[in-house]
Amino acid sequence: METNIWIVDNIVDKQSIYPQVKEAAQLLKSGEVVAFPTETVYGLGANAKDAKAVEKIFAAKGRPSDNPLIVHIAHLKQLEEMVSAIPDVAHTLIKRFWPGPLTLVLPKKEGVISDPVTAGLPTVAVRMPAHPVALALIEASGLPLAAPSANISGRPSPTTAAHVFADLNGRIAGIVDGGETGIGVESTVLDCTTKVPTILRPGGVTKEALEKVIGNVFVDSALTDERQTPKSPGMKYTHYAPKSPMAIVQGSPAFLQTLVNKQRTLGKKVGVLTTEENRSFYDADVVLACGSRHDLHTVASHLYDTLRKFDETDVDFIYSESFPTEGIGEAIMNRLKKAAGHQVIDEK
Ligand code: AMP
Ligand code: MG
């Protein structure tokens, strides 16, 4: 299959992106899958009401069919159409955080969204993305778009159109290239069907920010205890991983360097994932800095690109520094731990 590429600039006005977006929307309407930028990562979209179209997403990504997709909408009317109830707490969150990187899990209305989207669950996960190209595409297609991240399953999520191209060229109908995404980690998934809303996946909207608006929020216990089964089916899979094995190091840069030295005496090529502050400290085969510790948002936005950059090197093993689990750091550490298959080395 030939993959069309439409280059749109996300800072130009809606009118000037319309012709390209319209072409992409046409393909979506005819049941094809198209990748598009959002403020978190690139999504791989298909008509959420068309089971055959949605199945193409699973096929292109190699995604397990028991991992449900997030439905992306541009209007609240679309939400009302697909859920059977919107609790007060969801209304409050929508007012404050939509459009934005917050996905709400709500009870689904039967017969609207196609079955493979929700993987047999009685709920549906919905969000309104805060990206002009994503919104324009949803509007032009007139459809709710089921869209997971536009990567091959298990690989780091794409934050540029080039990442999408590297994974999915020839496997999908098109890519709308709107430049680099901003936030860099996926949306927060919040279950609003429990008495106290529960975070199923940490992401772009922090727990602290949610609690400021709605008070107490729970975190799915499986996020801190690997032995439990997560309520968000996708969280049980290994994810976001570079090709070489990786371990997260909790300790000083000096301690991390001793681990590097040990591997190198065994003849291994070693990579280090660090930040601007510590870049020059390390002596390793490849040292990549991912943003600055002074602003963890810069780490989030460069995380997946940095993990992918290691794949262009010949390192046998990667050691990554760790980050404080506050604010966006919670999502960063969640993705890093998954990328490392939960291998954590503690100095103490
Ligand atoms: P991705 O599309 O790659 O960003 O992944 C979407 C995430 O949302 C996965 O972790 C899914 O398991 C989760 N998800 C989607 N729908 C639901 C749902 N109805 N209930 C719980 N989790 C969901
Ligand atoms: Mg994904």
Q: Low-confidence runs (pLDDT<50, min 5 residues)?
A: none
Large-scale geometry = globular
Percent range for β-strand residues: 15-25%
> Between the first and last Cα atoms, what is the distance in angstroms?
53 Å
Count of individual helical segments: 11
Structure classification: alpha/beta
Could you give the count of β-strands? Answer: 16
Cα-based radius of gyration, to the nearest Å: 20 Å
What would the CATH topology of the largest domain be?
DHBP synthase
Sequence of secondary-structure elements: EHEEHEHHEHEHEHEEEHEEHEEHEHE
- Main β-sheet description: 11 strands, mixed
InterPro entries: DHBP_synth_RibB-like_a/b_dom (IPR017945), Sua5-like_dom (IPR006070), Sua5/YwlC_C (IPR038385), Sua5_C (IPR005145), T(6)A37_SUA5 (IPR010923), TC-AMP_synthase_SUA5 (IPR050156)
Protein name: Threonylcarbamoyl-AMP synthase
Subcellular location: Cytoplasm
Family: Belongs to the SUA5 family.
Give a nutshell description of this structure:
Required for the formation of a threonylcarbamoyl group on adenosine at position 37 (t(6)A37) in tRNAs that read codons beginning with adenine. ATP binds at residues 63, 67, 123, 149, 157, 201, 240. By secondary structure, this protein is of the alpha/beta class.
Keyphrases for this structure?
binds adenosine monophosphate, transferase, alpha/beta, tRNA binding, binds magnesium ion, 11 helices, ATP binding, 348 residues, eleven-stranded mixed β-sheet, DHBP synthase, Rossmann fold, nucleotidyltransferase
